Structure formats: structure tokens, C-alpha cells
Amino acid sequence: MSIISKAYAEGAAPAAQGGGMEMIIMLAVFGLIFYFMIYRPQAKRAKEHRNLMSSLSKGDEVLTSGGLVGKIAKVSADSDYIVLALNDQTQVTIKRDFVSAVLPKGSIQSL
């Protein structure tokens, strides 16, 4: 019995000491990677979209996230909805947040 216990005792590795500083440095590196690769670009896109939503005005040609292309017929400052004219007879009311891009003037005629 004593031979087996010695074999187990000799094979055991000593516990690592002083690993706290390396762990803090590794967490800081992962935090920086997360900030620069995930959070910062997403915050930039959200800011650009907020600026786009605030700059919408009557007559702008827009593309919605659902794929509709039309001209803004009515915008109210107190409402989150806009009226989008798809053609001369058809108008739809959509939530302002669903506008994904403002197109250059004359884009609807070129389609």
C-alpha cells in the first residue's frame, strides 16, 4: 500500500502561485478586444441611424428595412410614424425606425 500512495504523491503537480496578475492582464486584453471589435462599431452605427431618423423630411426618397422604396409624403414631429407614398395612388404608414436609408433624389424614377 505504501508504494501506491508514494506514486500518487510524486505525480501530483504543485499548485500554481501568483496567477492573479496574469488573469487581470488577460481580462483587460479581452475587454479591449470586446470594446474595439464589438461595442464601438455598434455604437457608431446606432448613432448614424439616430441622425438619419432625425433628418427625415417630406420629399425624401427612402428605402425601408422591408424593401419598400418610396417618397415621404408626411412627417410629424410628435409621432414616430411617417406616411410613405409608393406611387401616385398608394400610401402606407410606417414606423420611422424602419427607414434604413435615404436615397438620392430621382432614384425612384430610375427603377
Q: What oligomeric state do the depicted chains represent?
A: single chain
SSE sequence, one letter per element: HHEEEEEH
Helix residue percentage:
40-55%
CATH architecture of the largest domain: Roll
Determine the number of helices (DSSP H or I, runs of at least 4 residues): 3
Main sheet specs: 5 strands, antiparallel
- How many independent structural domains? 2
Structural class: alpha+beta
Unreliably modeled segments? none
The CATH class label of the largest domain is Mainly Beta
Amount of beta strand: 15-25%
| Rg | 30 Å
Say what the CATH topology of the largest domain is: SH3 type barrels
Mean pLDDT: 86
Through-space gap between termini: 88 Å
> What strand line-up does the widest sheet have?
4-3-2-1-5
Overall outline? elongated
Q: Say how many strands there are.
A: 5
Write the layout of secondary structure elements.
Elements: H1 2-11, H2 20-54, E1 61-64, E2 69-75, E3 81-85, E4 91-95, E5 99-103, H3 107-110
Antiparallel strand pairs: 1-2, 1-5, 2-3, 3-4
Folded structure, characterized:
The chain crosses the membrane at residues 20-39. One of its GO terms (cellular component) is plasma membrane. It is a single-pass membrane protein. It comes from Aeromonas taiwanensis. One of its GO terms (biological process) is protein transport. With 111 residues, this protein is α+β, with helices and mostly antiparallel strands. The chain has 2 domains: 18-54; 56-107, SH3 type barrels (Roll). 44% of the residues lie in helices and 23% in strands. The chain contains 3 helices and 5 strands, in the order H-H-E-E-E-E-E-H. It has helices spanning 2-11, 20-54, 107-110; strands at 61-64, 69-75, 81-85, 91-95, 99-103. It has a 5-stranded antiparallel sheet. A hairpin with a 5-residue loop joins strand 3 (81-85) and strand 4 (91-95). The relative contact order is 0.12. The mean pLDDT is 86.
